[in-house]
Specification:
The complex is a heterodimer of chains A (435) and B (265). Chain A has one domain: Cytochrome-c3 Hydrogenase, chain B, CATH 1.10.645.10. Helix content of chain A is 43%, strand content 16%. Chain A contains 15 helices and 13 strands. In chain A, the strands form five sheets. Chain A has a three-stranded antiparallel beta sheet, with helices on one face. In chain A, a hairpin with a 2-residue loop joins strand 4 and strand 5. The longest helix of chain A has 32 residues. Chain A is globular, with a radius of gyration of 21 Å. Chain B is an alpha/beta fold and 265 residues long. Chain B folds into two domains: 160 residues, Rossmann fold; 92 residues, no CATH class. The longest helix of chain B is centred in the N-terminal third of the chain and has 13 residues. Classes of the chains: A alpha+beta (435), B alpha/beta (265). At the A-B interface, helix 1, helix 4, helix 5 and helix 6 of A face helix 2, helix 3 and helix 10 of B.
């Protein structure tokens, strides 16, 4: 029986720093470690003592890829604690804001981080040689996502306009209507993206996942809804910590999250699509059907097509909002300084993002808890690798390693997010694990 | 045009390194959608793990460094990065000022760790989050949380051309006046750090009806004492002034000094 080790010391095309270690004994996978060495930044610690109004600006800095997700979970949790009701126009604008981030983030991942794996390129720059048109389309699509974010938030990364109770400033109706030609082009470009990604080659690999996502009675989920799964979970955000628990594994600077009593679970595009297919707009449903994508999709490599379908949704939803929008009476409502505690879950591009805040009667934060999507997927990524590596026994080392990297990138992992925690450990005794 | 048609062997080699950060500043390079293909035509991106699995060894002509130093391992790694790079440029508030994670610098990290961790001996994090310049000499600092992508393109272009980059060091107020904004610091009862903050964002916050929160860090000759007096005049409690100076550039010496003076008022 031969033993073999697959290791990748610096995972590329992921946000943040991690490495991979797989130990094979014959056709059996003896060990899988997704080692996260990104340094801890301790956000939950220094949120203590800050005013709740600062939380959207501070938590945005957890992740430069999905700052809006952090701002959205923060404001919804805090508004819930304060018992504030927001203007329906603000609610609509927040959906549009999130669509902008989804378009930017999904385009980045689909074309620039994930597609190069399917086509055998080291990166999108090398891919641009033979696929210049595709890359130029991707850049234009990404720019449109960023244009929405910049208009509503001031800039693409760490927008400055999000406030508890609404926005510091809201756009005019004319400003949103100006987006329409770009957005209409974007719907078409993302329909092409579905078709294009559906034509890629996919390994034959399916898993029996517990999918976890928000579900809203009327719409594809972004900021609101109950948390549901295909194994009977159906809870409010306030019950999240009763059903999910995080624990620390020695080899990782990020905590791993499990469903109590069951184990690993999957969040993100696959989970949202499988649990909310009926809430997608017709244009996105039809695109999925043409791509022969029917829920439940259980092959994680096909998540790239699902991301493209979600691009269709985000572009179509942005069009709808740009057409329907009427400015709110005031950009934001007044928020009182009073003691409270509140939780919220929103759908970041990579999956559900949980925030909980408690503050005192001056509005100063006493405790904060944040569970990002990637730490919820980490355990599941390791489970996938354990199964998938067993299929690669006969493969040459170099190709097998690349395939394992691709399997990790199925999840679009954001390691910067996953290691923001207060209680992170760098286990120096584990350094010797990489031979 | 000649630089775009050069083979990758003769193109300047550029590397992007990450330390403790949110990845946002290096993402700015990929966010420069209009310029990206031209930029990668003019340079050879030799090391940029966020974008490519091809990671080629140094030495490099230009190194872009994102993030602050927070661990023993990173304190050693930055020394090696400096050795490998002819020109070393720090990008963003983490690299230039220690970032938001420098808020730990005012806490007793050891006590903190003992309370939280079951096995404190495993913790390998430094007491302080520090900017790159506290560890190695650097050639240019690009401010911002996040940086302005157009300033990044200007900086790369200037470095390749061997000229001084056109990056102003005056305050946000200059940008704000040019935009014709009504002054928030004077006319509103809200905290605006514009007068002591370096320009570069385009006076974003005042243009969106809120005070500047200082994400580009202190301007060259920031009069933070006067700023603190103004906040007192507005009736802000000292604790609020401390928080205003202590955000994304808290460890930049001018803001650090100002926050500590407010703390002892």
């Amino acid at each position: 029986m031969t033993a073999r080790t697959i290791k990748v010391e610096t995972l590329a095309r992921v946000e943040g720093e991690g490495s991979l270690y797989i130990k094979m004994a014959g056709d059996r996978v003896a060990d899988v470690k997704l080692k996260i060495y990104e340094p801890p930044r301790m956000f939950e610690a220094f949120l203590r003592g800050r005013h709740y109004s600062e939380a959207p600006d501070i938590t945005a800095r957890i992740c430069g890829i999905c700052p809006i997700a952090y701002q959205m979970s923060a404001v919804h949790a805090i508004e819930r604690a304060l018992g504030v009701r927001i203007d329906p126009a603000v609610r609509l604008l927040r959906r549009l804001f999130y669509c902008g981030e989804w378009i930017e983030s999904h385009t980045l991942h689909v074309y620039m981080l994930h597609t190069p794996d399917f086509l055998g390129y080291e990166d999108v720059i090398a891919m641009a040689g033979a696929h210049r048109q595709v890359v130029e389309t991707a850049l234009r699509l990404k720019k449109i996502g960023n244009r929405i974010v910049s208009l509503l938030g001031g800039r693409e990364i760490h927008p400055i306009s999000t406030a508890v109770g609404g926005f510091y400033k809201t756009p005019t109706k004319a400003q949103l209507l100006e987006l329409l030609p770009d957005l209409e082009w974007a719907v078409q470009a993302s329909l092409d993206a579905v078709q294009w990604t559906a034509g890629l080659d996919f390994p034959n690999f399916e898993q029996d996942y517990e999918f976890v996502a928000l579900r809203h009675p009327d719409e594809y989920p972004l900021n609101e809804g109950r948390l549901v799964s295909n194994r009977g979970l159906d809870i409010d955000a306030a019950e999240y910590e009763d059903h999910f628990t995080e624990y620390h594994v020695k080899h990782s600077n990020a905590l791993q999250s499990v469903v109590r009593g069951r184990g690993s679970y999957l969040v993100g595009p696959l989970a949202r699509f499988n649990l909310n297919f009926d809430k997608l707009p017709a244009v996105a449903q039809e695109a999925a059907t043409r791509a022969r994508l029917q829920p439940p999709v259980k092959n994680p490599f096909r998540s790239i097509i699902v991301r493209a379908v979600e691009l269709v949704f985000a572009c179509a939803e942005a069009c709808r909002i740009a057409r329907e929008y009427e400015p709110p009476v005031a950009p934001r409502c007044e928020t009182p300084d009073r003691a409270g505690m509140g939780q919220a879950i929103t759908e970041a591009p990579r999956g559900i993002l949980y925030h909980r805040y408690a503050f005192d009667d001056k509005g100063l934060i006493l405790t904060a808890k944040i569970v990002p999507p990637t730490s919820q997927n980490l355990r599941r990524i390791e489970d996938d690798l354990r199964e998938y590596a067993a299929q690669l026994v006969a493969w040459p080392q170099k190709e097998a390693t690349w395939k394992c990297e691709q399997a990790i990138r199925n999840y679009d992992p954001c390691i910067s997010c996953a290691t923001h925690f207060l209680n992170l450990v760098v286990d120096r005794t584990e350094d010797s694990i990489l031979p | 045009m000649s630089s775009r048609t050069k083979s990758s062997k003769s193109k300047p080699r550029v590397a992007v390194f990450k330390f403790a950060s949110c990845d946002g500043c290096q993402l700015s390079l990929l966010d420069a959608e209009d310029e990206l293909l031209a930029v990668v035509g003019a340079i050879d991106i030799a090391y940029f793990p966020e974008a490519s699995r091809a990671m080629r060894k140094g030495p490099y002509d230009i190194g872009l460094v994102e993030g602050s130093i927070t661990t023993h391992a990173d304190a050693q790694r930055i020394q090696e990065v400096r050795r490998q790079c002819k020109t070393l440029i720090t990008i963003g508030a983490c690299a230039t000022a220690g970032g938001i994670q420098a808020l730990r610098n005012w806490k007793d990290v050891d006590e903190f760790i003992r309370v939280v961790y079951a096995s404190p001996q495993f913790i390998s994090t430094l007491k302080l989050s520090t900017p790159i310049a506290e560890h190695v000499p650097i050639d240019f600092e690009l401010r911002g949380c996040p940086i302005n992508k157009l300033q990044l393109i200007e900086l790369i272009t200037a470095t390749l051309a061997g000229r001084k980059p056109n990056i102003p060091t005056y305050s946000v107020c200059i940008e704000c006046k040019r935009k014709g904004n009504v002054c928030i610091a004077v006319t509103r009862d809200s905290t605006c750090l514009g007068p002591v903050t370096q320009a570069g964002c385009g006076a974003l916050c005042p243009s969106y009806d809120r005070g500047c929160y200082g994400c580009f860090g202190p301007m060259e000759s920031a009069n933070t004492a006067s700023m603190a007096n103004h906040l007192q005049y507005l009736g802000r409690p000292p604790a609020e002034a401390v928080r205003a100076f202590r955000s994304f550039n808290a460890w930049a010496w001018q803001f650090r000094k100002a926050s500590e003076e407010c703390e002892h008022k």
